[in-house]
Amino acid sequence: MNGNSAIYAQLVPSTSHPFPRMPACLTFGPVSSPDSDRGPKEEEVSDGKSCSALNPWRHGLPNALIVGVKKGGTRAVLEFIRIHPDVRALGTEPHFFDRNYDRGLDWYRGLMPRTLDSQITLEKTPSYFVTREAPRRISSMSHVTKLIVVVRNPVTRAISDYTQTLSKKPDIPTFEELAFKNSSLGVVDSSWNAIRIGMYILHLENWLQYFRLSQMHFVSGERLITDPAGEMGRVQDFLGLKRIITDKHFYFNRTKGFPCLKKPESSGQPRCLGKSKGRTHVQIEREVIEQLQEFYRPFNIKFFETVGQDFKWD
Ligand SMILES: Nc1ncnc2c1ncn2[C@@H]1O[C@H](COP(=O)(O)OS(=O)(=O)O)[C@@H](OP(=O)(O)O)[C@H]1O
After folding, report:
1. 131-183 residue pLDDT tens
2. Residue closest to 136 by CA, chosen among 174, 102, 97
3. Which of 67, 108, 194, 217 could be a cystine partner for 238, CB 3.0 to 4.6 Å?
């Protein structure tokens, strides 16, 4: 067995489950209206035991969600955590709690990878964090859902967001034109989505109406790059998982400029995230960046106080 095979040999599902489990054959009626608070009801449980005895693999609703933030590093967290044997994750973004809610929970559950009882189900959709209805809808699915939020300096995040849009629509106005009202420096246009998303505290207050802070875990998008194993260690702790993903799973890829996953076994390839992750950002003048930092400062301070962590974005 070579070094990497030994690292990955630990990656077999365990037998105990860190979350309260919904019965394998739990059925949900259609969500009566998109905003209905209707959650799973006891009488809707068809014989869960006999069902899972016949087939231990089933589609479960997510126990944990990566809810944001857009351009924070959500794909990296998903791809890193899914190498854990007790995690199964949906690779695509289902956008259930924002765009597809009227399709109902059965539709959503059907999208999920099949899991053993010992495994947790995870999905990521970064737009949930800024979707007003998302916390209420998620808590109506299950009020014990664990929530992961990957946060990043909101100024860098806004530039990353703009860079992504520009790569798809080259004719959009400049960053400065969009970020400031009347294109004059000083008055930040907080109605522009790229700016608004970074006012984390405003969105968090909405989540805290439905979830306790202890149900939320905040990943530093910056440390995820400089110390992926450390951040992923904390994610595993939060999810109640054995710490299996360690620094042995990562290497720094100089060409990409980011940490990547080591190859799983002798025949496998090392895995870096795709080209849309780690783009070269558009150049923004120092003065503009300082204005935006000034704008975000009070929001950041309140956010740090609320979550009890200083992300050091100054
Ligand atoms: N290991 C690794 N590899 C590549 N990229 C990494 C990694 N870790 C974090 N990041 C940062 O992730 C940023 C993209 O964030 P998201 O995945 O949340 O974007 S998205 O909202 O799903 O589009 C992306 O933002 P940009 O650098 O602005 O492209 C990266 O900085």
Report:
1. 999 999 999 999 999 999 999 999 999 999 999 999 999 999 999 999 999 76
2. 97
3. 217
Is the N-terminal amide bond of 69 cis, ω within 30° of 0? yes
**Closest CA relative to residue 264, chosen from 6, 1, 8:** 8
Return the sign of the alpha-carbon dihedral for residues 310, 213, 233, 72.
negative
CA–CA distance, 237 with 182 (Å, rounded to integer): 47
Q: Which fold has domain 60-307?
A: Rossmann fold (3.40.50)
Q: What is the CA radius of gyration of the chain?
A: 21
ipTM of the complex as predicted: 0.99
Share of the chain above pLDDT 90, in %: 77
Q: Where are the domains of the chain?
A: 1-30+46-55, 60-307
Tokens of 27: 């059925």
Structural tokens at position 35: 């905003």
169 is in an annotated binding site: no
Ligand 1 test: best mutation among 65, 69, 70, 71, most atoms within 8 Å of CB?
Answer: 71
Q: Is 281 annotated as a binding residue?
A: yes
